[in-house]
Design goal:
Shape of chain B: globular
CATH topology of the largest domain in chain A: Rossmann fold
Helix content of chain B: 25-40%
CATH class of the largest domain in chain A: Alpha Beta
CATH architecture of the largest domain in chain A: 3-Layer(aba) Sandwich
Number of helices of chain A: 10
Number of domains of chain B: 2
CATH class of the largest domain in chain B: Alpha Beta
Largest sheet of chain A: 6 strands, antiparallel
Mean pLDDT of chain B: 95
Strand content of chain A: 25-35%
Largest sheet of chain B: 7 strands, mixed
Mean pLDDT of chain A: 92
Number of strands of chain A: 18
Number of strands of chain B: 14
Strand content of chain B: 15-25%
Number of helices of chain B: 9
CATH superfamily of the largest domain in chain A: Succinyl-CoA synthetase domains
CATH superfamily of the largest domain in chain B: Succinyl-CoA synthetase domains
Order of helices and strands of chain B: EHEEEHEHEHEEEEHEHEHEHEH
Number of domains of chain A: 3
Oligomer: heterodimer
CATH architecture of the largest domain in chain B: 3-Layer(aba) Sandwich
Structural class of chain A: alpha+beta
Distance between the termini of chain B: 22 Å
Chain lengths: 369, 285
């Protein structure tokens, strides 16, 4: 779960990491006073805000209101800025990068640091990035922070501040269950202070059960994706017109790939996961119908999710609805015979294997275009 | 000989009194696994499918000689269950539980490795060696004893491919589902190494998916250390960047983890890569 910059900075502050003073508003007239020069920053969960005109300076309240009214409502690469963060402008002397993330290959958290802050870390040459794993059995210890500070090559007075921020970032990641915490740029100001210019924090959504304080935070999802989240269904909207329902992430992706092989294009990725509840399947199917696909392809390899459970749910969802699109159904595994009979009776197109199903769905989708 | 589980496997099912634990302990017995015990705190002394239930893994080991564990407990309690098994001295732990917090996974995997304990998963379907034993939730009826080793990040997609292999009158030596989370106990490499050293395994099928670099690392390993033929399928060729495709790990982030990169690396290592899963059997010789 990605957090907006202002929320990320609140968390940084809670963990003792210096951030510029600021406040967030959704209407320009909410800006009542500012203490000196500020930056007005669009709150969107996508990079490249500055280039898109989503970050602007202001010297006075009037100016701040004016730029805020220009930014609020702005569409930045598909994301609408609903709020702006108005914060004290830092007097930048130097910009560093500091991030903590998960390294899958090392199976640990890693600290990443660079003297080249302020730009996408992906574009920084490898020899200018320190990657420092945190051994899970050792945990964080101050020697790690000293190593980071030495690598980024700051003066002695700032080195202890950088090391300290490093430690607090690790504490943040571990206590908040963050899977990513990033300060870019980590600013060294002209008066020698170190503070977070920008911040990204992503909370591990699998750990939300022990962080109920994040429940109320909104995510940047399409309305249908929002509904799916509530139903605990993996649902992703794509560009094409075939709605794919399958069970299991790998199988759903493979179904998408197979459709593509036959010239079709998936418009919805819907992974039922493991469920033995026809009601959940029904809800999933209703969601699919809301996405208005031209063809629906159901691909079930039954195990925990039994084929007849899926058939029952699907039939419940389409019952009484005037259906204008074909449904191709492939069911294999537990109770497949019962399911096939049910679906055939409802006028669906049966398929015996994955590639046949993909081919049929693609053909149908090309017919309607 | 089999990889990871065999006739000597004596299994304890952690979380046996839950719906999944109960259902799958029976299915594992039907497959031929020696399920000797279950655990469920507060329910010691009960029986599930005639299997004795104990309060702790240590008791299950002491009374029934359990040497392998299969964990079904819900995510909030999963790390504790795994640490309990590790501390009790279990040698191989299969974690079926999904949605385990990533920091819990990092911690328990690190502890396991430091103790020399093998962890498979989390969020995995488990291991099956047809004719010998199964630890996990893979469907019993898709397998056929044979000489193809299957290693996969996926669940149902693995079943799809195993089923296709069986339908082509080929069989499996062992099938290992390593799980699709970002942190997994066993990696592709760990399993490939075992397949390379396993006399029953003559050919290998690797099923990967977008996200991470495990497939690229596997390709590097295959190039250097595997001389058995390998066939692969990578799911997510058509997945868009930035969208998490169900599995926590299945996301193309910052231009990394694409199917193209994985396929290229595997092909450079001499692996035949199927375009769609149902093509896998035809690429096996």
């Amino acid at each position: 779960m990605k957090l907006f910059e202002y929320k990320a900075k609140e968390i940084l502050k809670k963990h003792g990491i210096p951030v510029p003073e600021g406040f967030v508003v959704s209407r320009p007239d909410e800006i009542r006073s500012i203490s000196g020069p500020v930056m007005v920053k669009a709150q969107v969960l996508i990079g490249g805000r500055g280039k898109a005109g989503g970050i602007k300076p202001a010297e006075t309240v009037e100016q701040a209101r004016k730029v805020a009214s220009g930014i609020i409502g702005m569409n930045i690469r598909g994301y609408i800025a609903k709020e702006v963060l108005v914060e004290r402008r830092l007097d930048v002397a130097k910009e560093l990068y500091l991030g903590i993330t998960i390294d899958r290959s090392r199976r640990s958290l890693v600290i990443m640091a660079s003297q080249d802050g302020g730009m996408d870390i992906e574009s920084v040459p490898e020899n200018r990035i320190l990657i420092e794993p945190i051994d899970p059995l050792i945990g964080y210890s101050p020697y790690i922070g000293r190593k980071v500070a030495a690598f980024v090559g700051v003066k002695k007075e700032q080195a202890s501040q950088v090391a300290n921020i490093c430690q607090r970032m690790c504490e943040l990641v571990m206590t908040e269950d963050a899977e990513l915490a990033e300060i870019n740029p980590l600013v060294i100001t002209k008066d020698g202070k170190v503070a977070a210019g920008d911040a990204k924090v992503t909370i591990d959504s699998d750990a939300l059960f022990r962080h109920r304080e994040y429940d109320s935070l909104a995510e940047d999802l399409t309305p249908l994706e929002e509904k799916a989240k509530k139903l605990d269904i993996a649902f992703v909207q794509l560009e094409g017109n075939i709605g794919v329902i399958a069970n299991g992430a790998g199988l759903t992706m493979a179904t998408l790939d197979s459709i593509n092989m036959f010239g079709g294009k998936a418009g919805v990725f819907l992974d039922l996961g493991g469920t033995d509840d026809p009601e959940k399947v029904k809800d999933a199917m209703m969601l699919m119908l809301e996405a208005k696909p031209k063809v629906v392809l159901i691909n079930i390899f039954g195990g925990i999710t039994k084929c007849d459970t899926v058939a029952k749910g699907v039939l419940k969802a389409i019952e009484g609805q005037e259906r204008r699109f074909p449904i191709v159904a492939r069911m294999n595994g537990v109770n497949e015979d019962i399911a096939r009979g049910m679906l055939k009776g409802a006028g669906m197109i049966p398929a015996s294997g994955l590639s046949e199903a993909a081919e049929l769905a693609s053909e149908e989708s090309l017919k309607v275009v | 000989m089999a990889v990871l589980v065999d006739k000597d496997t004596k299994l304890v099912v952690q979380g046996i009194t839950g719906h999944e634990g109960t259902y799958h302990s029976k299915a594992m017995i039907d497959f031929g696994t020696k399920v000797v015990a279950g655990t469920s705190p507060g329910k010691g002394g009960e029986k599930v499918n005639d299997i004795p239930v104990f309060e702790s893994v240590a008791e299950a080991m002491e009374n029934e000689g359990a040497n392998t564990s299969c964990i079904f407990v819900p995510a909030p309690f999963c790390k504790d269950a795994a640490l309990e098994a590790i501390d009790a001295g279990i040698g191989t732990i299969v974690i079926i539980t999904e949605h385990l917090p990533v920091l819990d996974a990092i911690h328990l995997v690190a502890v396991a490795r430091s103790r020399g304990v093998t962890v498979i998963g989390p969020n995995c379907p488990g291991i099956a060696s047809p004719g010998k034993a199964k630890v996990g939730i893979l469907p019993n009826n898709i397998f056929k004893q044979g000489n193809i080793g299957v290693v996969s990040k996926s669940g149902t997609l693995t079943y799809e491919i195993v089923n296709a292999i069986t339908e082509h009158k080929l069989g499996q030596s062992t099938c290992v589902g390593i799980g699709g989370d970002r942190i997994s106990g066993m990696s592709f490499i760990d399993v490939l190494e075992r397949f390379q050293n396993d006399r029953q395994t003559k050919q290998i099928v690797l099923v990967g998916e977008i996200g991470g670099t495990a497939e690229e690392e596997a390709a590097e390993f295959i190039k250097k250390n595997v001389n058995k033929p390998v066939v692969a399928y990578i799911a997510g060729r058509t997945a868009p960047p930035g969208k998490r495709m169900g599995h926590a790990g299945a996301i193309i982030a910052r231009g990394r983890g694409t199917a193209e990169s994985k396929i290229k690396a595997l092909e450079a290592a001499g692996v035949k890569v199927a375009k769609i899963p149902t093509d896998v059997p035809e690429l096996l010789r």
